[in-house]
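Entry type: protein chain
Record version: 2
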Amino acid sequence: MSVSLTNMPSELIKTSSNPSQAATSTGRRPGRPTQRILTVDAIVDRTLQIAGSEGFTAVTMNRLARDMGVTPRALYNHVTNRQEIIDKVWKRLIDSVEIPELDSGDWRATIRTLWSSLREQFRRAPRLLLVALDEHITPEGTSPLRIAVAEKSLKFFTEIGLTLKEATIMRELMMSDVFSFALTCDYNFDNRAEEERDQVFQPVPKPWLEQNPQVDAPLTYKALEESVKTSDELFDHVVEARIAYVEKLLASK
């Protein structure tokens, strides 16, 4: 059962202060710690910080309480349980997504813009996307914006001539493309040393090939030079493949 937040005094997050400080003009006693209000938004913010760097398995009520300088009981004054926090994190992520204008009259350019926009937004904090894999999202985590975005994308795909079923398929492909690309290709590329980035998309890294000279792999050696050098270049090919698929669907009608 949810804990009501109405008529409930906010908990306080205490931060350290210097006991030797003189009283301020506000009359605060020397040594009294500065305080911030503990809110649901503050709990969600801290959860995002932890999950963004360590993954959602690191998010526990005890960890949140310790990081925020309060007791676990203080957290429960604002949220029912960890699941409620996860739902609110998911809702925050969905609500932060921005969808560009979708022009069915120039659908090829719109697909390029839409895919690129979503990819760049997810690329900023790719590990947060793992919430959809590592956690269970309940109906309470559903944002009205998520429904509106789904409707907007389906409308675009049907307006360019796809059936509703084909539109649902394209939407799933879009989400798969941008989610997986941000989590794997972009994350791997962005976190490599600058001098190693041109090797990220080689079928087999050159040092690995050199460790196994007995393996006959002429094409793999040749691919060291032929493979794409950046995640941007690879993503362009992903988008063009989707456009080609839509063209094929439309041509079959």
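Comment: Residues 164-190 form the longest helix (27 residues).
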